[in-house]
Design brief:
Distance between the termini: 38 Å
Shape: globular
Number of helices: 2
Low-confidence stretches: 1-11, 14-28
Helix content: under 10%
Radius of gyration: 16 Å
Number of strands: 15
Amino acid sequence: MRNMKQVLAMMILPLFFTISACKKKDNLDPNDVGGSADIALTEVGSEFSGYVTIGGVPLSTVEMTVIDRTPEGRTTFDVLVDLTGHPDSAIIMNLVPSEYVDAEGRINTTFDMKFTTEGIVDYFWNKQPWVVCRYDDEVGATYDLDDVSGQTFRRTVTEKTGQDDWPFVFFNIKTTKIEQTVDPNDDLVDKVIYRANHRFGLVYVQMLLKTGQSVDIEIVGWNAM
């Protein structure tokens, strides 16, 4: 179940951010993105919302606030999710590490990610840096993580149409689609899918479950609107 909890962290906790894009640098570390960290959307006090559904049934909105950002772009978010009373809350809460849950039974925690003008890095897989997206990358680009357990996991850019064909709030936007491999021994999850946009950052995450259901999150960084 350890891997499932890490996937949950990548889905329910961190995937609600926005960023702008610029030209990619050469000779980067495999799990860095380069670029400037001076981004309005990750300034302290910026707010984000994540709209979560399980099998098409909505859960409570995830609310996040930036509480710190380093000059290098590592950003700390405070997140609060109150699922108490929701009929599907057990699906999520059974997967949440106890240290993320407060005395009232809510998900209440902080987490870090790195944001720059060129991409996104997360630290949710055994606290190791792993690129989510580089905005200039084309279909076929891969971002590998050599896990401390000895396994290698991969994120791959699988779609980039260059068209405004992804619905976002009240309009359509261009997105890059990234698909992530999951431990084959994971008994719950088949695949994780991300969509990112050069202006609005990470706008969608989907966890495909082996039950045939999916957990879907639409992400809005309000300072980008």
